[in-house]
C-alpha cells in the first residue's frame, strides 16, 4: 500500500532561521512527488513537482529535493508569510486517481 | 473561470439531512478530484473523474456518498442521510489531464460541512 509520512508535525521558527521539512514515502512506481502549501481556510496551492531521484527545484526561499525514499523542503531565511501547512503528495501508476497525500507539516515563522 | 469554484463555502446541516456540494473546475480540465480533509488531518481521496466517467470510486466512504459530473465540467458530490462524522472540508481539484507527469492539481477553497 502506498504511504506518505511527513515530519515534523509542527515546526516553529524564528524569522531568518533556516530548516527542512521531511516527506518519506513508500510507493510502487513513483510517477511524481508534489509539494503544496495550504493557508488556513484555503485549498492547497501547488509549489513543486519532482520526478526522479537527484532532482531539485527552487522557488524564492524554498528548495525541494528528492531521493528514492524521501523528499525535503528546505526553507532558507524564512519570513512570517511563509507560515502555512506544507503538504507532500505522491503519484503512482499511470492515472490521476493514484495521488496519496501526507498529513502535512504546520510551519509557523515568528517575527 | 480562472480557478476552481466550490459552493457552498460553508454548510451547516442537521443529522439525517441530504447535502449537495458543487465544484466548477477550470475550463478545459478533463480530470476532476474530490478529497475530504478533517480537522488536522491530511487529504483523503474520495473519487476521480476523467471526463464524465469515474474510473475510481474506491475512496467513497459509504453508499451514502455519490458524485456525478456532467458535460465534462461541473461536478456534484451528494451525501445522503448525513452523520456527524461527515463533518469536514470537502475539497475539489482539477487538472488538465489525468495522466502521470502532467498532473498539477488546482484546488478550490473547499466546502466546510458541519453536521449537528
Task: Looking at this protein, list some descriptive labels.
heterodimer, A: 111 residues, mainly beta, six-stranded mixed sheet, five-stranded antiparallel sheet, 0% helix, 59% strand, B: 116 residues, seven-stranded mixed sheet, four-stranded antiparallel sheet, 11 strands, 49% strand
> What gap, in angstroms, lies between the N and C termini of chain B?
33 Å
- Order of SSEs of chain B, N→C? EEEEEEEEEEE
Q: Largest interface, per-chain counts?
A: A-B, 27 and 29 residues
Overall shape of chain A: it is: globular
Strand content of chain A is over 45%
**Major β-sheet of chain A, in short?**
6 strands, mixed
Using DSSP, what is the number of strands of chain B? 11
Summarize the main sheet of chain B: 7 strands, mixed
The tally of strands of chain A reads 11
Shape of chain B: globular
Number of helices of chain B: 0
The radius of gyration over CA of chain A amounts to: 13 Å
What radius of gyration of chain B results from the CA coordinates?
13 Å
Our estimate of the beta-strand percent of chain B is over 45%
Uncertain residue ranges of chain B? none
Helix content of chain B: under 10%
Q: What is the overall number of helices of chain A?
A: 0
Distance between the termini of chain A: 41 Å
Describe the structure.
The complex is a heterodimer of chains A (111) and B (116). Chain A is 0% helix and 59% strand. Chain A has 111 residues and is mainly beta. In chain A, the strands form two sheets. In chain A, strands 2, 4, 5, 9, 10 and 11 form a six-stranded mixed β-sheet that branches. In chain A, strand 4 (30-38) and strand 5 form a beta hairpin. Helices cover 0% and strands 49% of the residues of chain B. Chain B has strands spanning 5-7, 10-13, 19-24, 31-37, 43-50, 53-56, 65-69, 75-79, 88-95, 106-107, 111-115. In chain B, strands 2, 4, 5, 6, 9, 10 and 11 form a seven-stranded mixed β-sheet that branches. In chain B, strands 1-3-8-7 form a four-stranded antiparallel β-sheet, with no helix packed on it. In chain B, a hairpin with a 5-residue loop joins strand 4 (31-37) and strand 5 (43-50). The radius of gyration of chain B is 13 Å and the shape is globular. In chain B, 34% of the residues are buried. Chains A and B meet through strand 4, strand 5, strand 9 and strand 10 of A and strand 4, strand 5, strand 9 and strand 10 of B.
Amino acid at each position: 500500500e502506498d504511504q506518505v509520512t511527513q515530519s515534523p508535525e509542527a515546526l516553529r521558527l524564528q524569522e531568518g532561521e533556516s530548516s527542512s521539512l521531511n516527506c518519506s514515502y513508500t510507493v510502487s512506481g513513483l510517477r511524481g512527488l508534489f509539494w503544496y502549501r495550504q493557508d488556513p481556510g484555503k485549498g492547497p496551492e501547488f509549489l513543486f513537482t519532482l520526478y526522479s531521484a537527484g532532482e531539485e527545484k527552487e522557488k524564492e526561499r524554498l528548495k525541494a529535493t528528492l531521493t528514492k525514499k524521501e523528499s525535503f523542503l528546505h526553507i532558507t531565511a524564512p519570513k512570517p508569510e511563509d507560515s502555512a501547512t506544507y503538504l507532500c503528495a505522491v503519484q503512482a501508476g499511470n492515472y490521476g486517481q493514484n495521488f496519496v497525500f501526507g498529513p502535512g507539516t504546520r510551519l509557523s515563522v515568528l517575527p | 473561470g480562472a480557478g476552481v469554484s466550490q459552493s457552498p463555502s460553508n454548510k451547516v446541516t442537521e443529522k439525517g439531512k441530504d447535502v449537495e456540494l458543487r465544484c466548477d473546475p477550470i475550463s478545459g480540465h478533463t480530470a476532476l478530484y474530490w478529497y475530504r480533509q478533517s480537522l488536522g488531518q491530511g487529504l483523503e481521496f474520495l473519487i476521480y473523474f476523467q471526463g464524465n466517467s469515474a474510473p475510481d470510486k474506491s475512496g467513497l466512504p459509504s453508499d451514502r456518498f455519490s458524485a456525478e459530473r456532467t458535460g465534462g465540467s461541473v461536478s456534484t458530490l451528494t451525501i445522503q442521510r448525513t452523520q456527524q462524522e461527515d463533518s469536514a472540508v470537502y475539497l475539489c481539484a482539477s487538472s488538465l489531464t489525468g495522466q502521470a507527469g502532467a498532473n498539477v492539481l488546482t484546488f478550490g477553497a473547499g466546502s466546510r460541512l458541519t453536521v449537528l
